[in-house]
Amino acid sequence: MAGRIAFQGERGAYSHQACLDARPGMEPLPCRTFEDVIAAVRTGAADQAMLPVENTTYGRVADIHRLLPESGLFIIGEAFVRVHISLMALPGVQIEEVEKVRAHLVLIPQCAAFLSRYGIRGEAAADSAGAAAELAASGDRRVGVLASDLAAEIHGLHILARHIEDHAHNTTRFLIMAREPDYQRRGKSGMMTTFVFQVRNIPAALYKAMG
Fold first, then answer.
1. Is the dihedral of CA 31, 37, 43, 47 positive or negative?
2. Quick check: 103 and 147 in contact, CB under 8 A?
3. Is the distance from CB of 156 to CB of 132 less than 8 angstroms?
4. Which domain holds residue 54?
5. In the chain, which residue ranges form alpha helices assigned H by DSSP?
6. Which CATH number goes with the domain that contains 47?
7. CA atoms of 141 and 135, how far apart (whole Å)
């Protein structure tokens, strides 16, 4: 499939990995914000969007639920990425030299046991793949990054440890969205319908809505 698929973040982000896995024939287009991803599809700069909607460890991505109703886009598919977190540093650096790691705020607590074992402190960054790019440019041997193997490959970093996440089944679900709906059946499963709705702030509101 030709065309471009937009995602939020830098090249090497887990959303970038989702694009490569689910749409290998499309060109990934990095965008700064989720709003920019949606705008890229609406204006024709991209044909599809890859948006994370929930993670088995972190929970739902609240911004996406807020943006979906007014996006003007249609959900045409979904993708799942197993979130393997790697510790990376500059080539030649040993793990004992690393004093702190930089990563998106969500990733740091997901590696708490590993970081505690090595006495490494965490520092929040706006984007893990962006932190990898910054480390490659800085030359700081005391700093590591928590990110995907793809980020290490893109930015020429050395992976010191793989799969260091605390939870073995950490997975993110993504929605693939486009300007037009696609009602073609895929495989043997039936079609999936997504509802976005709001409930009143009262006890058992969700139960009553579902009942």
1. positive
2. yes
3. no
4. 4-82+169-181
5. 14-22, 34-43, 62-67, 112-118, 128-138, 149-155, 205-210
6. 3.40.190.10
7. 9
Q: What sections of 82-204 are H helices per DSSP?
A: 112-118, 128-138, 149-155
Confidence category of residue 62, pLDDT binned at 50, 70, 90: confident
Q: What percent of the chain has pLDDT over 70?
A: 99
Asked if 61 contacts 52 with a C-beta cutoff of 8 angstroms, the reply is yes
In a domain, 199, yes or no: no
Q: Which residues belong to the active site?
A: 172, 174
Mean pLDDT of the chain: 94
Greater confidence (183 vs 180) lies with 180
Q: What's the N-to-C CA distance of the chain in angstroms?
A: 41
